Amino acid sequence: MVISIPAPTAVVLLILLLIIGILVGVLVQTRRKSSELRVRLDAARQRQQEDERELTQRSALDTLKDEFVSTVSHELRTPLTSIRGALGLLSSGVFGNLDVKSQNLLRIALTNTDRLIRLINDLLDLERMDSGAAVLQMRRCSLPELVNQAMETMSALADAGQVKLLVSPGAKALMPNVFFDADPDRILQVLTNLFSNAIKFAPASSSVTFEVETPPDELIFRVVDQGRGIPEDQLESIFERFKQVDHPDARAIGGTGLGLAICRSIIQQHGGSIWAQRNVAKGASICIRLPRHQRTYDASVGGAYTASIEVPSIVAAPRPDTVLDTPILICDDNKAKRTLIVTQLRARGHCVLEAGSSDEAIEIAKNRPAQSPVRAILLDLQMSDMKRWEILKLLTRNGSTASIPVVCLSMGAEADDALQSPNALRPTSSPSLLSEDYLFAELSHALLSDRGPGRVLLVEDDLDLANVVLGGFAKTNVLVEHAATLYRAKVLCRERRPDLLILDLTLPDGDGFSLVEWLRSLPELASLPLIVYSGRELEEGDQSKLRLGPTKFLTKARVQSRDLELLVLTMVPQGRGNNKSDPEDRGGQQRSTGLPVS
Amino acid sequence: MLVTVRHILIIDDEDDIREVASLSLEAVAGWKVSTANSASQGIAVAPGLQPDAILMDVMMPGMDGPTAFRAMQQVASIAHIPVILLTAKVQAQDQRRFADLGVAAVLFKPFDPLQLAAQISKALGWPD
């Protein structure tokens, strides 16, 4: 029996078979591919695990090395302290004079102890740099500042050797405008090292000259001496450890043989190069080429205890024309801390004035000539000065000082005590470390903020209370916008980033927690300075859910609006009265002055 | 010439360093020195001694210098006395950490025995 299949059906069957065939083929292919992929994925996973293991091992090794360096540094220095001290006292003659032979022996012991100390310092330095443990703290540096500092440090040595330290006329003309990205401490170390080398090997009444060239995006400088020079075949090797130029009195001169190796490590870490040249006439030059701009800025900022705070490259890039005559005023009664900050500000190219009290600070700010006003005030709230909280008010009252941005330092537990005004304002107290990077970030924010009034967004559903708060700011340079609902708050935040948020927790269409959660999810708003102004005391658990940028918690019943106003003034930049900022800044990101609190 | 006799409390666990530092201040500057060989001993004797300044080692067994400094800040009768830390650590991050503590100054070991008194005076703003 023959079953006849109508032709169209056969065609359909054939097509179906074909489709099934193709599908099976694809399926087999896919399975093969997917098993291949699985194998590759497993291999990749394994590699990743190995990498992770290696990384963990390496970081464990790094930690071990750091600890070792730190321990050695301490363990070697401790006995040396006793030796150096005992020898120093004996040879000084305070316990009676010694005969010439004993004096000579003591002098030998003393010089060699000093040499050992230098050697340990240099070795540890080099070790830390070569192991990568020494992280560069990149800043905008002013070349003249660093050169002057190095020359000052070396002037005693130069005088003793009757050597003149000079800056070439060309360098003098070029230098005032030379800024570059580098770790100022390290570059200073290089400069002092080079000067000290040159001085040590320079004959009496010769000179050591500093020269500069500025090709685009680069910086070349040279320390030129008139000594006995470096033989052609040793121009390279002098940068190796313990390689000094062979000459009879090299050892007697007392270098550790590590100075140039350290310089090379530092310069290489900056992405630059260092080399030696024979001078045409006499002596040798050590030359350094450095890139002016560092791309790896952010990655290299931050040390063991500095939080990951963005340090804008503007940190110490004051516009060259404004540097000299518009100073930053630092007000702190702790001289040690003041000096520390002043040194760091100067190294970044700022002009700095110092005040030891609030009165002095106000006096200085008021009496600056109109063409060179104080650009910003760094105020230490830990001062024992009774007026440190008044200073903000006093500055605002005076027309010429009302627009100076103020950056407040470390609002720690001590500051809280000082805040015991009649209706105690109680910010959350957690002693804050004064992080250098944070400080300069805040300072640069303040300097950038002279572009209009500070903007505060008040999120409050109680209209009466909102009006009280709004009224309080009527006479200040702070612009307060009001949102009575969660929705409106979000709209206003999106429209333009406020400099500060004052937040009530209960809102008709949600609560403060959900607003904070939303803000945290947006990178540009996640670090907003925030004052939480709530009806009840908040538990620590609740507080941690409400932190954005610098965050303060106030309880309505305990705080007068005057205190809130004061707090706000410390947390937002006060716009310049006569707004003359350049348009670039105006369009830029909103910046604010904050308190480094928890 | 009238020379102010300062009274310094030295706190260090190393006998030799206490000795050298004491001699430096006594023989070179003519100051009065008291010593303690641990932070806790230092905190115990400081209220009675009321020294003009405290010179304290950073790394000591038991309580270290920074911890002792914070403890001293809590004791009303000695919180006003300036504290100078003496450290053999010279790494930049250590230095900054110490400066952030709020101590009056940080001096480094090895120190020059002839300069120690002058360094203390300078750090505390005392006239020479």
From TrEMBL, chain A:
It is an enzyme of class 2 (transferase). It comes from the Bacteria. It catalyses: ATP + protein L-histidine = ADP + protein N-phospho-L-histidine. Residues 579-588 have a biased composition (Basic and acidic residues). Keywords: Coiled coil, Kinase, Membrane, Phosphoprotein, Transferase, Transmembrane, Transmembrane helix, Two-component regulatory system. Residues 27-54 form a coiled coil. Residues 589-598 have a biased composition (Polar residues). Residues 327-451, 455-571 form the Response regulatory domain. Its EC number is 2.7.13.3. PANTHER family: HYBRID SIGNAL TRANSDUCTION HISTIDINE KINASE C, TWO-COMPONENT HISTIDINE KINASE. This is histidine kinase.
